Amino acid sequence: MAEDIDRPISIRIIEEKDNIQVSQLIVSVMSDYGCIGEGYSSSDPELENMYISYSKEKHVFYVIVNDLDNVLGCGGIAPLTGADDNTCELRKMYFYQKLRGRGYGRQLMDLLLQQAAIMGYLKCYLETVERMKSAGILYAKYGFLKLPSSHGNTGHCGCDVHMIKELV
Fold first, then answer.
1. Which pLDDT score is estimated for 3?
2. Which residues pair with 145 in a beta bridge?
3. Rg of the chain taking only CA atoms, in angstroms
């Protein structure tokens, strides 16, 4: 609904009431890019309860909502599974098409990287797919560098782009 973005928009920490909308957003965006099934974040078990999944130490998850609490975008930080304690993963940063290109990606990225540094992480890793061109451009602008292969154990074997950024 285009009217969603014509309302006041804010970024806040995920709440339990956001679980269904966040899951729907992630699956919808991943569907747009043909990223459904095993090997993609659209199949992660944490989608069943994102609020609980990110209510742990060294985890944070934000939603972008309008004043009616319609979730329009999201993204989070969590430890990179299978890596050292100094490396986090940028997770599930997705936006409905109508929100893209309006500066919210930069706002959320600024907030997430700031929180990652506050939590003591020294590096931030992410995975995406080449066909998400706008996301790749944003990550490059923030100094994420492409890696030749995946790091950690994310379970996202469908991703073909792996990137990392030094936070200090």
1. 60
2. 164
3. 15
CA dist list (Å): 55 to 42, 117, 126, 155:
20, 18, 20, 21
Residue 85 is which amino acid?
Answer: D
Pairing verdict, β 60-66 and 71-79: antiparallel
> What does the pLDDT look like over 119-146, one tens digit per residue?
999 999 999 999 999 999 999 999 999 9
Please give the Cα distance from 90 to 148 (Å, whole number): 18
pTM of the model: 0.93
As for how many domains the chain has, the answer is 1
| CATH number of the domain that residue 97 is part of | 3.40.630.30
Contact 92, 64 (CB under 8 A): no
Which tokens sit at 14?
């995920």
- Residue 166 CA to residue 125 CA, distance in Å, equals 9
Q: Which structural domain, as residue segments, surrounds residue 106?
A: 2-166
The rounded distance, in Å, linking the Cα atoms of 89 and 75 is 11
pLDDT in tens, 43-95: 889 999 999 999 999 999 999 999 999 999 999 999 999 999 999 999 999 99
